[in-house]
């Protein structure tokens, strides 16, 4: 690797680590990330980026741009997340995602050389719940971006991993309350919820392989001598693809109608696609892998589909070539969304790895901007993914 990259990363290290640590120490929930937004955008403004806040209709989102050459050409966006988890702080390490993305933006802005295009850094709020990227996509925030790159902390350096699609499912049943001594005068909303749980269990053999449904009852009544007039449950549904999600939704709608008929309770529900499955762009991931290996890291390759989690980056991968590569910050066995991972997201080692991620992303961005042949390979891979999905849809 040319020395200018490592040298510039060294210069930026202090300020980026400071920023990332401050985000870690001031955890903010999704849609409330005002401090994190200010920290990222202050740094980017100082570096000459023009910053827009409130991008895509979300107050805590941002888009920072820096034109290169005549500004006409590919636009490469680095995506920052900076929301925390309720009660756990930065147990998913999004403070490191923010540091890596801002770092990549600054590195590329300084070192892109003689190219035409634009470096973009986008702040995408509420990944852990709320789907900031989905809202931003719907509101056109990604329309003028060509490529999206982000990296997520993990217990290994990992390329090639996809993610599953989700379905949003929130349901309330409205019945009729009465004294439990005369239950025939009421309509038991809790019974409807219990019936729904059992019906979903009976449905499992009919659902696409690897469908994963988990539910909780959030309100099941207030007192045991009152027939509940209201009950509320929430389910998380994971499926391999959004197309499979639609199959599951059809089954669920039928089951809900059945429960209404059996109990007389009225259902009020939200049943819609949440996060899409993920299609990482392998050409970009290989570039990231190359830099990580040059920096002495071992990089693993994961199968595309597995019993993975879900993220709103999936929706971005449907729209443009995009990656969500993983970088190692902790030994295997330290699970994310735990207090241990929260600690691991604020160590000298984690910040060192964050700088490697920033370098890897910036260099991948540089290749996209400077190498037209590489760019057409990236675009072609994306076009093939789109085509494969369309054909699968026709066959379904
Ligand atoms: Zn998470
Ligand atoms: Zn995360």
Summary?
The protein is of the alpha/beta class and 396 residues long.
List its traits.
396 residues; elongated; binds zinc ion; alpha/beta; Alpha-Beta Plaits; Aminopeptidase; six-stranded mixed β-sheet
What does this structure look like?
With 396 residues, the protein is an alpha/beta fold. The protein has two domains: 276 residues, 3-Layer(aba) Sandwich (Aminopeptidase); 109 residues, 2-Layer Sandwich (Alpha-Beta Plaits). 43% of the residues lie in helices and 21% in strands. The strands form four sheets. Strands 1-2-4-3-5-14 form a six-stranded mixed beta sheet, sandwiched between helices. A four-stranded antiparallel beta sheet has the order 9-11-7-12, with helices on one face. Strands 6-13 form a two-stranded parallel ribbon. Helix 1 crosses helix 10, helix 3 packs across helix 10 and helix 10 crosses helix 11. The longest helix is centred in the last third of the chain and has 24 residues. The chain is elongated and about 80 Å long. The mean pLDDT is 96. It binds zinc ion (ZN) (2 copies). The site of one zinc ion has 4 residues, from loops.
């Amino acid at each position: 690797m040319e020395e200018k990259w490592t040298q510039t990363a060294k210069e930026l290290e202090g300020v980026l680590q400071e920023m990332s640590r401050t985000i870690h120490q001031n955890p903010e929930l999704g849609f409330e990330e005002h401090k994190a937004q200010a920290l990222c955008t202050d740094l980017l403004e100082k570096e000459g980026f023009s910053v827009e806040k409130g991008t895509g209709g979300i107050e805590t989102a941002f888009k920072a741009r820096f034109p290169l050459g005549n500004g006409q050409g590919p636009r490469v966006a680095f995506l920052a997340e900076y929301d925390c988890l309720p009660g756990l702080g930065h147990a998913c390490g999004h403070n490191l995602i923010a540091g890596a993305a801002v770092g990549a933006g600054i590195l590329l802005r300084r070192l892109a050389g003689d190219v035409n295009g634009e470096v973009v850094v986008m702040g995408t709020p509420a990944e852990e719940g709320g789907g900031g990227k989905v809202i931003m996509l719907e509101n056109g925030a990604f329309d003028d971006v060509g490529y999206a790159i982000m990296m997520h902390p993990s217990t290994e350096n990992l390329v090639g991993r996809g993610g599953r699609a989700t379905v949003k499912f929130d349901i309330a049943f409205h019945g009729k309350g009465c004294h439990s001594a005369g239950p025939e005068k009421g309509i038991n909303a809790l019974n409807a919820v219990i019936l729904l749980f059992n019906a979903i269990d009976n449905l499992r053999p009919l659902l696409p392989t690897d469908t994963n449904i988990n539910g909780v009852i959030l309100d099941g009544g207030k007192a045991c001598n009152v027939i509940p007039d209201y009950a509320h449950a929430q389910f998380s549904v994971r499926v391999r693809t959004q197309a499979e999600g639609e199959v599951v939704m059809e089954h669920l709608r039928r089951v809900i109608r059945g429960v209404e008929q059996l109990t007389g309770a009225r259902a009020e529900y939200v049943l819609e696609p949440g996060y899409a499955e993920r299609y990482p762009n392998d050409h970009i991931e290989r570039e990231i892998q190359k830099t990580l290996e040059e920096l002495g890291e071992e990089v693993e390759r994961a199968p595309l589909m597995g019993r993975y989690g879900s993220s709103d980056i999936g929706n971005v991968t449907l729209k443009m070539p995009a990656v969500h590569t993983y970088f190692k910050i902790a030994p295997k066995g330290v699970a994310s969304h735990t207090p241990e991972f929260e600690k691991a997201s604020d160590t000298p080692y984690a910040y060192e790895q964050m700088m490697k991620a920033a370098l890897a992303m910036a260099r991948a961005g540089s290749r996209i901007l400077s190498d037209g042949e590489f760019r057409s390979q990236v675009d072609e891979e994306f076009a093939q993914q789109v085509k494969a999905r369309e054909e699968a849809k026709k066959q379904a």
